Amino acid sequence: MQISNKRWSTDYFFEQRKRVLSMWPTGNGVSLTDAFAYHHAMNPLKNASNKAMEAKRKGLTLMCPSTGKDTISAHTNLLKYMQDEAKVQFVTTYIDSLTRNCKFDVAKQELQKANETGKPRLNGFPVVEHGVMGNRAVIDALDIPVLLFGPTPDARLTHEIGLAGGHTGYSGGPLISFWNYTKNVPVESIIHNFQYINRLMGHYEENGVPMMYCVSGAMPATSPPSIMVAPEIIEVLIAAAQGVKHVQLNCWVQGHFAQDLAMILTFQKLTREYLDRFGFTDVKTTTYSVSPTGRFPVAHDQVYGLIAYYAVLGVMGKVQLIGSRTIDEAHHIPTIEGTAHSFRCAGMVINMLQNQNFNVLDNPAVKEEAYYMEIEVRAILDKVLELGSGDIVLGTKLAIEQGVLDQPYSTSQLVKSKVLGVKDCTGAARFYDFGNLPFDSDIKAFHLSKIAEREKQLGCKVDYETVVKDLTAVSEGYILPEFIGSSL
Amino acid sequence: MQRSITDFTLITGVIGEDVHVTGIRIMEHALRTEGFNVFSLGIHNTPDEFVKAALEHKADAILVSSLCGHAEILVRDLRSKCTDAGIGNIHLCLGGQLVIHEEPWSTTEHRFLSMGFDRVHRPFILPNEAISALKVDLNITQDSVVGQFKSQL
């Protein structure tokens, strides 16, 4: 499949669209004319882009849990509970993993069982099976914006139905879907599917309906932020080429204050720069921060500490939206009550902090992190553009083959997966293995010096065991494994 | 004759449309460090793919990871497929976030034991606990390799 970062023609889009709508019978229920009318009649602040831009203007940090249930009544009750009891300002429809993998027949069977027995069967909302009116039944019961949520290689029909059904945005992206949600699907076919989604969102924008597209880049696992920011900016450029006008930047925060704040700053700065460079000056950005999944502490009170910590970080980073993990993350798929408790905790932190306008972004440690992050991201993106002779999509395909774009712990067999991160003695993520990343000696020396400091603290060489123990340290209550059980 | 750990072969992987891979990767590393032969299938495997790999590598056990909460939909015919393939006695082990609703662990454990699994692990156990249980289950009493994970995790 030969693809590039060129805007799809109207003919090509509508030709593809016929096939997409025929993937499942509920596709026949989608009418764009009707969808635009539905969205135009909606309260403007129930639209995700409008509300996120309003938050940016007012300097507010709002909250958005990522949750979903299978039946219409269960999902509606869940989202209403989040709105009314957890007091969040955005909610999401978490798409079940069968629908995300286009196994619509199995999703249908399991949904029927859930409807018959009243017991949950699916790990999210089967957007496609519920059809446009099923989605609207949920949206109509709420006063706040609802986003579709969940990376997947093919969410085309989910978007047709979900957006016509009243959702006003999506969180996911082609590269996170490739690295973290597929085994052997070529990246170009995933990008092609996302170009469809982005073109569809662009079509909504052209018809007066703002759609928020939240890029996600790659799921971190002690990953130096540059290897998340670079793929996220690629996702932004792919979206912008297809006419997306409202992008949200997903800032993956991993627990190191200076590094996480530097990521939030650098990500915004470089996204603006690359958007402008390619002429996408009218694309607006907002930010979202969330900590990655991973092994979590079992004790609720420890998780409250983590939730509060990440809420502080979000406010200090002046992001518009924060997500949060939940107190029951280590025990089971989070409950309604567990999620509400968690967001009330985060909300309290936000309410205390956000009107203080306390600025930590000029801290020297933040600036040092931002300096290296910026030259790393530029090195990666400029190499990708060079490989693609200026086309970011062509370059991405080649860069993945060569390991110029790379991820640790990728699910895909088509990824080099040579890079690996380890924490330094303050808990920041550094490169333990640079793989084939196009970094100069200055960047490498910085990371190696930080690892040398960790080795001094440990009293031994950093090895794969250290890498593994770094991944589980937080679940045992400490930022670094060597501090577990320590006290004054 | 007593078999040592290095004589045992394991098939590992994530079942169904689930994509959560980090846990099983860490588990595989720990198992290899302990001395087991590990054949990793990665994500997105059907029960048939587990059975095929087990036959091909003459495996002693299949270790299935599932974190998406759909295990009940995905694993129910794994034992019968093993039986059909002539390896009905193979050790079957399952771990992860197995259900999407809240219920007592004993209920969850019983549900999957009665589907034919020999060992069902709670969410988020650490590698050393799973390895100790595996050694008991496979009657491995004499270690030929002393694993680092035992003391460290």
List the helices and strands and how they pair.
The complex is a heterodimer of chains A (488) and B (153).
Chain A: H1 10-21, H2 32-40, H3 48-58, E1 62-63, H4 72-84, E2 91-94, H5 97-100, H6 104-117, H7 127-140, E3 146-149, H8 156-164, E4 169-171, H9 174-181, H10 187-206, E5 212-215, H11 226-241, E6 246-252, H12 257-277, E7 284-290, H13 300-316, E8 321-322, H14 336-353, H15 364-387, H16 392-402, E9 420-423, E10 429-433, H17 441-458, H18 464-472
Parallel strand pairs in A: 1-8, 2-3, 3-4, 4-5, 5-6, 6-7, 7-8
Antiparallel strand pairs in A: 9-10
Helix pairs in contact in A: 4-7, 7-8, 9-10, 10-11, 11-12, 11-15, 12-15, 13-14, 15-16
Chain B: E1 9-14, H1 22-34, E2 37-40, H2 47-56, E3 61-66, H3 71-75, H4 78-84, E4 91-96, H5 105-113, E5 119-121, H6 127-137, H7 149-152
Parallel strand pairs in B: 1-2, 1-3, 3-4, 4-5
Overall, the morphology of chain A is globular
Strand order of the largest sheet of chain B: 2-1-3-4-5
The quaternary structure here is heterodimer
Count of individual beta strands of chain A: 10
> For the CA atoms, what is the radius of gyration of chain A?
22 Å
Strands of chain B, count: 5
Distance between the termini of chain B: 31 Å
If helices are DSSP runs of H or I spanning 4 or more residues, what is the number of helices of chain B? 7
- Alpha carbon gap, first and last residue of chain A: 60 Å
Largest sheet of chain A: 8 strands, parallel
